[in-house]
Amino acid sequence: MSICYFQPSKGKRVMVKSSRRPQDPMFEVGEVAQVLYDPGRPTRAVLVEDRAESVGGYRAAMYIFFAGATILAGVGVIKALV
Question: Which of 6, 13, 67, 80 is most deeply buried (CB count within 10 A of its CB)?
Fold first, then answer.
């Protein structure tokens, strides 16, 4: 399993783990990895593996975050109207 650490511009260092457990390590120690995270909740982070399968994972993560943002925006609009 790949484990990475990142530090958002505002906040403390956060650990993120890959969801896959490949036979060989995904990254070497010290290698740079991409991380997608919610700036409001950095602990909700996704490690984007830099491999052929990462495109699907990246898209899935983007859709998940987009869906969450859309739902929250919709709830905000409904509360503002009520």
Answer: 6
